[in-house]
Amino acid sequence: MFSRLKYKYDENVKPPMPKIVAKIWTPKMGDFELELMVDTGFSGGILIPYHLYDELKLTLLEVPDKYFGVLPVGIPIILHTALTEVSIGELKFKVHVHSHPLISKRLAGRKLLNQLKILLNGPKRELEVL
Amino acid sequence: MSNLGNIIVVKNVDKSLYRRLKSVASLKGYTIGEALNEAIKLWLMVNEVISRDYLDYITCREKSERTLREIQERYDREHRGKYVIICDGVFKGLFSSEKEALKRASESKAKECIIAKLGEPIREEKIEFGMGVL
Question: Domain spans of chain B?
Fold first, then answer.
């Protein structure tokens, strides 16, 4: 029987924010564990800072497609995007990992979240993958 | 520049730039202080983060995109469904499966590689960001 995956909210953010832990497959390190903030306002799969994207050699797994966005300060950017395998517990998905030097956050967006059944247990400050 | 508690006086600010900042900030509902903080944050990010290495990577990516267009023109029909790898602008070969292509690309010593499926168009997609992306 599977034990359910539970992740504590990040209490350093006010109010506390749900987070999830995913392993992404990278050319440099194999499986690499990432703590990601859950952000339904982000429409992509995973977003990470460029220094990490470069360090993990995700630049070797890039897709030909163009992904672009507009930062909240109004600056348009073209994202660097790799396609790789992501595992959350026993679940595995092919997910686009996006990046740009102007991005500093590690986020899980709707394209990843929509593949999961998630319970946001606010009072317990806990995210549960069902 | 002088600092009087929370008030900072800055000399030599271009008046026309300041007027534009004031007008755009007001239109967007920002105070001048908030707009300046955003502008300073952005200036720091651009100047601290964008390195020579990053510019090299961008150059390699552009070369790979050009090579991919040539490969698509030449092989798109004949090898439809196969995967192509292009690293730093150099064509590395055609592969029958995505897994094989991913393995080969991940072993490369290049700065960047594009893995594309022949016969499939290059898509463009707009990504939405939440407010806390920076």
Answer: 11-49, 52-117
- Mutation target vs A (from B63, B129, B131, B134; most A CBs, 10 A cutoff): B129
SS3 state of residue B108: coil
The amino acid at A30: G
Cα-based torsion angle of the residue sequence A79, A82, A84, A86 in order, rounded to the nearest 10 degrees: -20
Contact of B126 with chain A, judged by CB distance below 8 Å, is answered with yes
Looking at every residue in chain B, the average pLDDT score rounds to 88
Which residues on chain A are in Cβ contact (under 8 Å) with B128?
41-43, 69
The interface predicted TM-score (ipTM) is 0.88
Cβ neighbours of B127 in A, within 8 Å: 42-44, 67-69, 79, 98
Domains of chain A: 5-129 (2.40.70.10)
DSSP notation for A94-107 = EEEEEEETT----E
Angle at A38 between CA A34 and CA A41, to 5 degrees: 130
pTM for this prediction? 0.81
User: Is residue A15 reached through a cis peptide bond, with omega within 30 degrees of 0 on the bond before it?
Assistant: yes
